[in-house]
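tool=predict chain=A
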Amino acid sequence: MSQGLADIAFTPAVKARQEEEGVSGLYADSAYFVPGKPVLGDAEREFIEARDGFYLSTVSETGWPYSQFKGGPQGFLKVLDRHTLGYAEFRGNRQYISSGNLTVNDRAFLFLMDYANRRRMKVWAKVRELPLTGNEDLAARLIPEGYRALPERLVVLDVETYDWNCPSHIPQKVSRQAAEAQISRLLLHIRQLEEENAELKSFLAPGE
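tool=predict ok
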């Protein structure tokens, strides 16, 4: 369980709602209330850097939330240290809604999904956008080699807290690459069985 989550997520309104639903006691003595920033351990690093995308939510100066999907090659979201994430921002539709929101409110929320294994991780962070120029060492760490996209800036996320969610209601899905790999293995196995079957038929054929 992550540390200090209640300080961020369990606002007075949330606590009041928990009380109304009779579930406030479920969290009263839990690790949700352990103070201090959490540490990104080996399990978190492995999970985060295995992703090829995540959902990023920000809030505008008018109070409206905005969520978008950030995608890239597997591992493009990096764990820079035990409290920090980072990734290279590549050119997309050029609306710059998330980027604009972050200029007035640096708080963001990341939702990382592993549909195949029905796991999810939530991350609350404060975000800094940095130019490529003057940050060459960081750019070398964050820009995936061989990825055919135009990097525009670097994004550094100071993790305030995180939480692992239960698997309830997560549909189990696999990626196209994983499905194709499994299908290829099955087709190979079928061909091998067909060849063995043909050999047996030839061996058992009458008059031979």
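The beta strands are 53-59, 65-71, 78-81, 84-90, 107-114, 119-130, 151-165. The helical segments are 5-9, 12-21, 42-48, 97-104, 136-142, 176-204.
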